[in-house]
């Protein structure tokens, strides 16, 4: 009997592999993956004019309503297909491509989709828009015509023969073939009850905006058209699970440990009957929803808000909350008084000396930076001095030749000068800093050590500086922890605050940068440096995730520069090259590839940034 069962399973598996292989429309032997090409495609997308705040992510397969052959119906294949699409946050490309029998063509298809997405804009009509984007891309870069023709020729050989289709389907297929060969030549697409075979060379609408009917390509009301082959757009695949809450069970706690029976409360921390403002956005990002039935007790209940700690143990607020604007890239404007920022001081932080493990490094850094306090600086364009200022003399000569001779000093002289400089260091203390770098250190511990050595260094050189940490919990609670203000001395009290830092919540960078810019802008110094120390990209629980947060941070950096500040970001995120150049500029950030070296690298970066 056991042999019979094993034989049936073996025959079934062999049959499944055979029928699936025969019915598949792909070429697994020539398959290429997105993951190793993701960074290169992101660079190509931005180089071709794509939005800098957008990333390249894998797209999930989408359900299709296609006319399948008998073999495909038996095998149950060709129900889904990986399609490329683009929204306001990411360019979604198939995780694997096996469209063509040649792996080189599949790689070329990845590059074509990235370039087409960079050329694209808001989609109003699937067929006409893709033709227009293709035509504009080929006109802008004529060298791509040969590559595009190779992709089209290879794809047309794989498409169904119009002669084998019904009249309506054949007309639609011929229209699509002509649109591929001559982009822009087809204005109206015939209607068909059955969907056309997918076009991997075109972009599709975002998943949540797909239509409920297949085959309709018209847009009578100037809205997003229905996409051929899309099944029940916006709907999700659901899986129901059984939730079995524990009832009764063995009591393994000694009753003597309970003070009284009345203090034992059956509290369900996870059930929440309030409306989640982010539920709709989260549901749109999920491909599969898991449903369960939870029994909720009717009548009275106890409801606690556990997001923030009680006021008795939370940090001490300094004054009322500060209302700040936030940039909405979708509207192209600042939203006034949109964010509430609370300035806080750490609670119950006892004064502490510098830890023993950092004292040797601190002494070495102090010796190096104390020399800057007495460095002799060259002053240019002086009326007299020990050296000739060749640049000033050259400017004078050119002006005299052109008849515009202004009075200027032509000498250089060395003098002892005081550094006219102020710096504010803004440290990211979000919950991501609780992650481990290795078996011995967490990110928050490296940040603490960096702040301590930075404070020791700047107190030695005599520059004005301030230290702050920040995290956030939606726009109503942006927390800015004051470790050292400009008017405060750096001493054991400050060291105690730094060593008491704990990971917070999320990373709403824009509001923190705006408030730090206001604090730094009030300093009476000629040069003002705003340093941001972070381990990741901007994010929060609400709309701040993705491109929204990147665009707001970028606008806050531009505002700081318009105030005369010099913002600079220092990060340990290895993926920072995908978003920091867009926010801070190509020369506005530094990546520390060995995070454990951050405490020593931070003072050296400061010295390089503040050299005259």
UniProtKB/TrEMBL annotation:
Organism: Pseudomonas wadenswilerensis
Pfam families named in the record: VWA
Protein name according to UniProt: Protein NorD
InterPro entries reported in the protein's UniProt record: NorD/CobT, VWF_A, vWFA_dom_sf
Coiled-coil portions: none
All residue ranges annotated as the VWFA domain in the record: 420-609
Region ranges (Disordered): 214-241
